[in-house]
Design brief:
about 130 residues, 3-stranded parallel sheet, alpha/beta, D-Maltodextrin-Binding Protein, domain 2, single chain
């Protein structure tokens, strides 16, 4: 429950950043999202934002980490959801969710019975 509350609080902070980024003359906010994050975070975030700000259009651009960082630096997007990997200079990162990585394998996979594995065990996988 504590993790859920912290995540909602962080999502609210992200929503506040979206509100602050809206251009008065355009009435829209551009959000970038990493392809693996988009289906998890963006739908609920946009729904909440639109409920509070129905007059503001939200546009989402999905891209790679490099594209997101370029879009942020160039102003093509106002905010982005991504991982805190190789962000470089000029990016203000706010963590909204802490999650461990999961590997999903078929029941016949050599690692299927393992309760926990290290990333290196998957390095040779296709």
């Amino acid at each position: 429950m504590a993790v859920a509350r912290a995540t909602l609080s962080r999502a609210s902070e992200f929503e506040a950043r979206m509100s602050a980024a809206v251009s008065d003359d355009s009435g829209r906010v551009m959000v970038g999202s990493l392809v693996t994050v988009a289906p998890i975070v963006i739908p609920s975030l946009v729904r909440r934002f639109r409920k509070r700000h129905p007059e503001i259009a939200v546009e989402n651009r999905i891209g790679t980490q490099d594209e997101l960082l370029e879009w942020l630096r160039s102003g093509a997007v106002h905010a982005a959801t991504t991982y805190d990997i190789e962000l470089g200079q000029g990016v203000d990162f706010e963590r909204i969710l802490d999650e461990e990585a999961h590997a999903v394998v078929s029941s016949s996979h050599r690692l299927a019975e393992e309760a926990e594995i290290v990333l290196e065990a998957l390095a040779g996988e296709p």
